[in-house]
Amino acid sequence: MEDGISLDQQHFTEALLEQYGMDTSKAVTTPLTPNEHLHPATDNEIAAFKDLKVNYRSAIGSINYLSTETRPDLSFPVSTLSQYLERPGNKHWQEFLHVLKYLRGTSSVGLWYPVDKGNEVTAYSDADWGNCKITCRSTTGYLACFHNCLVLWKTEKQPSVSISTAEAEYKAVCDPTSELLWFKNWCEEAKLVTFNEPIRIYKDNQSCIKTANGDCNLNNKHMKHVDIQLHFIKEAIQNNLIWLLYTPSTHMLADFLTESVNKITLENSLHGLNLLRLGVRGDVEILTQKGLVLSRTPSSNNIPIETRISINADTVQQ
Superkingdom, according to UniProt (predicted)? Predict the structure, then answer.
């Protein structure tokens, strides 16, 4: 049996489903309804929604808790539904219930961390250009793996409008580069690991890569207005701190962080990131007060190794 550690929130998820009366609902295969375009509710829709007497903000907060701890597949749905906290309507509530139906069929999904002695940091960065129907701003999505284990993921709306796909993709490299360079420096200063090669960041946009590598003129009509702070990416490449590499869109693992993808694309991405259905390895599971389960496979002598972890703890107690 492969040794490793798993993290899931199955107990919290099942309690959440029961809280909203969705514990017997029919499961769906994607977090959001395909091709559903949401807009802020009108005054009449807001008034009608108030008659339901439900707390939309609290509901979104509950799935946000899942998305930030063990469920990156909920990151884009949470980002989408959070945009309507001020003006929610029945359509937004139905999409929240759709997320719960997705959780109904994936409650045991969690992060699997196999034993790995490597020290590579690999990231995937993607952008969906102008996908906000209201502001025309783009969405950034990125994730990073350390020792082949997922340690970072994020979905966020870009702070300004991009006038080209290349610009949106270039902006999407900025945040993960900054965070991963900090992570690399912290690991080395703490003497946890020595990195043998630059951080690999994969993109599916050739123009972005050519611009960052200096193979394309930054002063062309599509890129000349990009803020100067973004050009630290070029410096990071020149200093051999990161490699910006191309991957086909079919292999872009961060795609599900920027848009609602189909079942096959979602499952392929999650499997590639070791986000698996747990509870089938014979693991020992310990439920913490915060609803986070940490499991470790039995050791070679079949004696279970129990580890408790608290989300808010500064240290891990064994």
Answer: Eukaryota
